[in-house]
Every structure is written in C-alpha cells, then in structure tokens.
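Problem 12. The chain below contains 436 residues. Write out its predicted structure in token notation.
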Amino acid sequence: MRLGSLRRSLGSVAIALMAAPLLLFETPNVAAFSDQSGAPPTAASNQAAAQSDASSLLGKLSLPSDATRSSTEPVGDGGALARPAVYQVTSDLVDDSAWWVASESPAEILSYVEANPPSGSKLGESGGGSSPNGTPLSFDVFGWPPVAGVLSSRWLVITAVALSDGQTGVRADAEDVWIAPRPASEQVPSGVRLVTVTVRQFDGPLSLPLIVGSEAKVTRIIDLADTLPAAQPGVEACPADFGPIVQLAFLSAPGTQPLASLSADSSGCGSVGFSIAGVSQPALADGGSVIDELNTLAVIPVCAAAQLHAAASIPSSEPSGISAILSFRNRSRKACVLSGYPRLRLRGKHGNALPNVIKDDVAGAGATPKVTLAPNASALAAINRQPASSTCKRRRAWTVLILLRHVNRRIIVPVGSAKHPFSPCGLSVGYLAPSP
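Solution.
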C-alpha cells in the first residue's frame, strides 16, 4: 500500500502554515473567461485568463481607509511579507501581489477584511503562525469558484504582521492556477475494433487479458480514454492507494500491435499513462473513472467461488469494536469483481444453524463500492460487535456460511477456536473494501 505518496498534480498545494481551504461555490459564468472566437482553450489562453483574473481579484480587496499602498516590502516585517503565508506549488500559477502599511493591529486588519469580504468570495481559512525566521503572522484565505477547463483555483491570501515601528504590514496575493489543456492530438486512433483489459495489484502478477469486442462497449471505452483530463503540474499528497492498476490495449484485430495503450491507477492520485503506437504521450489524470466505467460496462466479471480463498481472522475478545475480519483473496489468474455486504449465517459445532442474526453495518455508509481483484489481491469485510443483551444465547460459533452478491455458490469458513471462541452475539458486518 502506498500511503501519502506524492505526485505532480494540479489541485495540490504546498502550504506554509495550513491545510487547503475547503470552498464551495456555485458554478461561475464560464463564457466570461472563454475565447469569444469559440476556439477551445489553450495553455496560452488559460494563462492569459489567469493573469487577467488575478488582477481583478486583487482589486476586490478592501482595507481600512488609512492603509497606505507600499511599492516595496514594508520595513521591519522580519521577512514575513516576502512571500504569501499560503502558496500553491505549481508552475501554472499566476501570483499578483501588493503591500500596504496600516495603523490597525494584524487582528483588526483581518477582522475588517472578514467583515468586508472581497465581492463574490468565501472565506476558506484563517490562521496564524510564523515566518521562516520566527516572526509571528496572521492570514486569511478567500476563494472564488474554479472555471471549468480554464482556472482550477482562485484565491486571495491576506497576510498581516506587526512591524517593528508599531504599525502593521499587509501583503495580499491573488493566486490563480490555470489549467493546461490536453493536447488535441492525444486521442485513440481510428480503426480500433477490440480492447484488451488486464489488471494487476502494484507489483503483483498481471491478470489474463479480457477481450472486449462489443462495438458499443469499445466505443464507450474509447470515449472515456479520449476525454480523460490532462495531469497538471504541482505537488499533491495522495490518498491511500489500494489499486488496482488497469491496462488497456486498443487493437485493430486480434494479435496486432496496439494502436494505443493506457495504464490507469484506480486509486491514490489516479495517474494515467497513455501512448499512441508505442510513443508516450503527456500524462493524464482521473484513473479511477477507468475502472468505474469498466465495472459499469460489466467488462470484468463477478468472482466465482472457485477463484476465492476465504478466511477469518482470530476473533477479538473485546466486548465491542471489530470482532473479526473476513478476507477474500483472488487465487486465480483472472481479474474479478466483488461488492456489497456479505450475507452471513453462523453454524454450531455440528453444523446446526444458530439463531443469531448478523445485520449490515450501515452506519455512515453510502453506496457500496465495487472491489476489483487482480490476481492475489484481497477484499475485506469487518464483523463488528456491540455489547449484547443479556438474553443473547452465547453458544460458540464454529463456522460461518457466507453468501457474496452474485457469486455462484456459498463459502464456508471456520471461525474462532477453543482458545479463541467466537461469540455470536451483537454482531453486524461491514461492506467489502479493498485490502491495503
């Protein structure tokens, strides 16, 4: 498992003092940022839009009436206003900045700005900290909605610091991140009749190829590949990466060299590699949508019971919390899919059914995800326990009979042992999720 891995990506931020602000907006008027000729956006046109917009955002800042504009960094700031308190690390950033000096304290300056926010903005974050040399500072971050296909981030960062002469220095940075569009030439060539799909778990074995020959499904997969967004420069702290990695080959006929190839990481940062006739193209993003589309099209089949090795962990003796973990490992060479809540029935020493009911643990759960299992990959489901009532019959469970959604037959797994008995009381089961 790759936790917190870093990669170059747009929406990421390197922040001196804080986490990225969460800002929710209505969709802006995209036409206001569009080339009026109707031409699709280019890197140059998006950069120009960022420059124009940053200048406009900076002009929306309102400060107390005695604040005086300074053409240089205010003297006595200890270097705290040499840079914004919060900044985004990407080469596609436009930063339009300015300084002021005012008589009010840093707290009073920021209170004034919060009471008179820039038009159309929302306050995303407020905080405080210190500059690299230890000078205390305070800051606010305001934001405006992104512009689809043009600007991914629009911030106004206000930094305030007490100066050595008793006044306050203020720095404002309008930070716009412009989107680098995907090259128009980066498309799957015409003539594709087949798509082969293989799946692997990081450095694990590659699955046997699945061949997609349906014209409708091939068209859907090509459309997806052609509309994935370009990866953006920058630094991103990625979420946990549970895989799998999906590889697609676009063929004109069986046994021919691929006209194009795509490799998508379905979790983590969702990075996508793409090549045309063996020549690597600029990186793409949103790899998770590839596996989602394949599952929507039912390209990867539901696991058969014979493909799975099921096991239960040693049960916990705690009265609440996770009692045991069920695991389902794909021991075949073919990729397959599991989903939903396992249906569980407990059995006694002689195979007799126990009356205890194991409910679905739906607390906090939305739609249950599909888990795509590459060879040797596993899906997990937790059996959770709550303190049981005194009326619960506490006979020990010896086995659990498991029915997985759409799987062709039931699976029987031993649970517990003489040393670690498995109580059937107060149980619920969580939905299947990929194993770390």
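Discussion. The CA atoms of residues 289 and 410 lie 31 Å apart. Students who got a different answer should revisit the alignment rule from Section 12.3.
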